[in-house]
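[Meeting: bench + compute handoff]

Bench side (C.D.) handed over the final construct sequence. Compute side (W.E.) agreed to return the predicted structure before the next meeting so the bench team could plan truncations. Sequence as handed over:
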Amino acid sequence: MTKALKITTANTIEAVEINGLADYQAAVGGFIESIPLGDDHGMVINEDGKVEHLPRNPLATLLAFTFRSGIANDDYIVGDAVIIGTNDAGDWTDYQDALADEIRTIAEAL
């Protein structure tokens, strides 16, 4: 079980428990894609979200830029996203509470 943060297109933040691939897919509404958020976290998004015309996710997009995910300057995140922790081996782990606090602070500024 992995402790994750779900970032919705309505800019809400919800702590969720993920128990495997099916849970990740359900959280983002389809096939998953992972993008890095710094050294210790990642963002799981819907791989086909733009093709499926999912709504933009302003908070997830801001987080991707804030934490230097490497997305292009004119790119954006669509659909709900899930924030997870990562370890040195690249495994997905629980998010860190300090990051959750930082994300909530960023969200309040929107």
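W.E. noted at the follow-up: The chain has a mean pLDDT of 92. C.D. will use this when planning the next construct.
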